Amino acid sequence: RFCTGQRQSPVNMRLSTTRAIAMAFTLALVGCGLVGGQMGGISEDEEEMLQEMGITGQPMGRKNQQPKFPPVKSDLKYIRCSVCRKQVELAYTHAQQVLAKRFKHQSKRKNEVTEFDGEAAVQDYIEKFCNADKPDSPGAWIKKQDLVNDGDKLVLFEHPNEGHCEYECRTVERACEEVVDAADIEFSEILYQAVRDDLPLEKVQRQVCNRVAKVCKKAPPKLDPKRVDYDFREMTAEEKQMADMMANLKDSGMGGTMYRREDLMDGMAKMEEKFGSLMGTGEGNSEEAEEAEAGEDEGTEADEVEAPARDEL
């Protein structure tokens, strides 16, 4: 009513004014970064104010209840072997980098003790290898994978940049988890020994995928021609930054709401248009408020003047 020009009582007008100032203050804090919505610094009342202004943010961290895309279980039988071989390729390269100094080192003194990363470091890498959500983790490779129909086969195609982790991404993630669960600690043991003995990659892949995980003992079945293919959607730099921030917040147990600066600036413009005097512009609403308050004061003085006359009667 304050914004539509209808006459209000001074009390209601003061409430509207207070509400408007609170909205403007919330916008200013969020827009300037003084209140971190993503860090849970905005109260529920402040979020409600922003929603009243048509500003909705992106739930972050533990506050984001959006479910993950499910894996396509019918695709797993086609890709288990190729996913395993890709895992071994990446994990073997990492193990070589981690263990190289250990096996090349030669003690210069008889009782010299030198500590190097060992099998435990390789095992730690493998345990994080199938988590596609954690940014800058060993599992980041999964977001680059695309499942492509190639005749009667379903093959992995790696894109240069990460994509949104949807159906096919979650399918690769699930296949990765199955390999790690099946191989267990033998995965890291094989990698450790392979680096020590300088084995070729092909032999290491056979040891893990054929002998231990047993996902490459038989050729995958022929691809169902009715199999549904899902498009790979590459993430923009802004989308990746947002996804990484959400993952980090969720991992730390924090949550909140992230607002786009463009939406906040648009909200500030609307506030200036509706409550110009409160934002430092416009005079009409301010004059109306002053007139209403003056009217209230005059009414009070009149009551005080009339009171003695009634007493005399």
Characterise the protein shown here.
The structure is a single chain. It contains 10 helices and 4 strands. It has 313 residues and is mainly alpha-helical. Strands 1-4 form a two-stranded antiparallel ribbon. A hairpin with a 2-residue loop joins strand 2 and strand 3. Helix 3 runs antiparallel to helix 4. The protein starts with 9 loop residues before the first helix and ends with a helix.
| Sheet having the most strands | 2 strands, antiparallel
| Radius of gyration, CA atoms, in whole angstroms | 32 Å
Strand order of the largest sheet: 1-4
Overall average pLDDT:
74
Which structural class matches the secondary elements?
mainly alpha
Number of helices: 10
Characterize the overall form: elongated
Short description:
With 313 residues, the chain is mostly helical. It has 10 helices and 4 strands.
Strand and helix layout:
Layout: H1 10-32, H2 44-52, E1 58-61, H3 73-104, H4 119-127, E2 145-150, E3 153-158, H5 167-183, H6 186-197, H7 201-212, H8 237-252, E4 255-258, H9 261-274, H10 284-312
Antiparallel strand pairs: 1-4, 2-3
